[in-house]
Amino acid sequence: MPTYAFSQLSEETLKTLVTLKGKYVAAEVWEQMQIDLTENELRRLKDLISTLRRRNLMVMNESTLWARAIYPMLVLAEQGHVQAWRGVPLKAAYATFALEGEADGALAPSLGGKIQPPYLIVHEAKRGINAPDPQFQLYGEMLAAAWLNWQKDSNTEQEIFGCYTVNDSWAFVRGVVSDIDVEKPTFTVEFSPDYNGILDAEYIVRLLKFIVAKHQKTCMYQ
């Protein structure tokens, strides 16, 4: 069985592994996917934005940008036993191929201090002319996370969310992996508009909270 690192994945490679389908979703649908922030969360977010406005984010190195602008917003979306994680190892063995590597971040449950299969994967786009396409690396990471959730609940249709960040901009993807146990599963993806990490910060965190709450509700009925 061939094993693919996330950094190896391209659109052509993915199409040999899964049936890849894109689905149009109006921006208004994404705008409905939100949960209001508490007063404490709003205050923390305003403090974060105030600091970021005084920083030169365009030239900030990737690790510093992650620590200052990306990870703090993930932390604001934490609910209950779901928390933000950095450097998340992922490994999946589908019927005819395997995937492995490390996602930059995730929102996922914690059990005894150890990460459980994630609800949302975060991929930080690398800079430079020769940098891999972040979208297809994210797809691979989402496929791996979906497989891990399938191992937990055995549902052959798995919903998984992802997002990739470019500097301080965010783009979200909703994915559904169906027929997960066949030779060539189907992976259907829907795309959000792009959001600015400062101007759209409150909406981004509301959307992150919605994703976490949605999966927590799903888990209650399993």
What does this structure look like?
The chain starts with a strand and ends with a helix. The longest helix is centred in the middle third of the chain and has 20 residues. Strands 1, 2, 3, 4, 5, 6, 7, 8 and 9 form a nine-stranded mixed β-sheet that branches. It has one domain. Helix 3 runs antiparallel to helix 4. Strand 8 and strand 9 form a beta hairpin. Helix content is 36%, strand content 32%. It has six helices and nine strands; from the N terminus they run E-H-E-H-H-H-E-E-E-E-H-E-E-E-H. By secondary structure, it is α/β, with parallel strands linked by helices.
How far from one another are the termini? 32 Å
Number of helical segments with 4 or more residues: 6
SS class:
alpha/beta
Helical proportion? 25-40%
Order of helices and strands: EHEHHHEEEEHEEEH
DSSP strand content: 25-35%
Shape: globular
Please give the radius of gyration in angstroms: 17 Å
Number of distinct beta strands: 9
Fold blueprint:
Elements: E1 3-5, H1 11-17, E2 19-23, H2 27-31, H3 39-52, H4 62-76, E3 82-93, E4 98-111, E5 114-115, E6 120-124, H5 134-153, E7 158-166, E8 169-178, E9 186-196, H6 201-220
Key words describing this protein structure:
alpha/beta, 222 residues, single chain, 9 strands, 6 helices, 9-stranded mixed sheet
Gist of the model:
The chain has 222 residues and is an alpha/beta fold. Helix content is 36%, strand content 32%.
